[in-house]
Amino acid sequence: MYEQLCSHENLLLAFKKAKKGKTKKDYIIKFKRNLENNLITLRQELISQTYKPKPLKTFIVRDPKTRKISKSKFRDRIIHHALINIIGENSLKDLISKILTKLKGDRARAKIIEKQIEYTEDWKEKKETSLDLLNHLIEKSFIDKEDIIKPLGTSQIFALYCFPTTPIISKNGKIKYSLNRRIYPNFLKKLGFIRLHLRRGLFYVIPRERLIPSLQNTFYLKQYILEEIEKTFPVEWERFLKELKRKKSLLNEYNSYKNKSYKQELKFNILLLNTDISENNVGYLYGERTFTNDFHNFLNNQLDLKKLNFPRSVKANISEYMKNISIVFFFKGENTTNIQKINDVEPKLKSGLSIIKWTDYLDKNQEEIASIFKLGNLSESRAKKYSELLIKKIEVYRNALRELRINL
């Protein structure tokens, strides 16, 4: 087919089609004066695979709608027609349609993955808030730690089992270097997957409810994982070769690998399971102590406040206590000096904004809150930051209490 594309007959036919309706244009008259030599030059560039399209000429057209037009050089239009002569008009339309469909699919998948990453970040923040609240209630003796330990049962999860086959260099029975340790799909963390340690491969799990609905059918998920792994391989292969080269004891191994492609050596098979899985049905994997401990911790850490049910009297005591907490509670992690400033300015916030309970701040303007924070010897930027943080923290803690069915 490529020989047909480069043939003199095909290029001559393409020239005739390209000049149709434009025979009086200066650039066509100029090209036609030296037609044979011009076609021979194009043919030689195609055969030697040195042909490169010229930059497009861009201009604005107003007829009457304003449009930006990009125009190719005449010699490039001859190549366009030469291609169409061989593959056909319909085939070209089909090819363009497939490319556009793929691009549309890529964009759709990118949006879905971006949504999952945002969802994971939100869940992490929610989990941190939940743990902080429960630990505080335990510390104040409202509840016991045993009250929040989730019994080991069955969880519906996605389990991703990865089998990397990578070079392992050993001497005298001892492993000197294993690329297996290098290939660690960190991008899975962004999606919310948790790694469980396993000698036979890489094992990741995520509860079904931690995936947005679009990813629960696994189609986009598989595509994304495989594409990201393909990006990882060439980078890791280069690092692998550099490390071999640096070690004199592995110089022979470096010489044997340096001319190989990563595609020859690295393979990555994945098994994506959508299943109910528990401590009792993980099969032969359950025999590995580290994996077993990781898996127990995974099940216990799937904290869901909605599933916790405290006695009515306990909830009433928590409600009464939480109504009266200081806003200092929401600024854990700040330095002692700033905590004292917040504590000192709190009475002014309450009187100036008519605050009865801390959820009342949600109805106030952030600028008003910031202006009173400044009265506590806080800089303008810090006062603004603290007003935003206060509103955000109050909202997430209020939602956490609502999930526990505790009203303020």
Compose a concise summary of this entry.
With 408 residues, this protein is of the alpha+beta class. The protein is 54% helix and 13% strand. It has 3 domains: 2-87, no CATH class; 154-305; 312-403.
Account of the 3D structure:
The chain has 408 residues and is of the alpha+beta class. It folds into three domains: 86 residues, no CATH class; 152 residues; 92 residues. 54% of the residues lie in helices and 13% in strands. The protein has 15 helices and eight strands. The protein has a four-stranded antiparallel β-sheet, with helices on both faces. Strands 1-2 form a two-stranded antiparallel ribbon. A hairpin with a 3-residue loop joins strand 1 and strand 2. Helix 8 packs across helix 9 and helix 13 packs across helix 14. The model has no long low-confidence stretch (mean pLDDT 78).
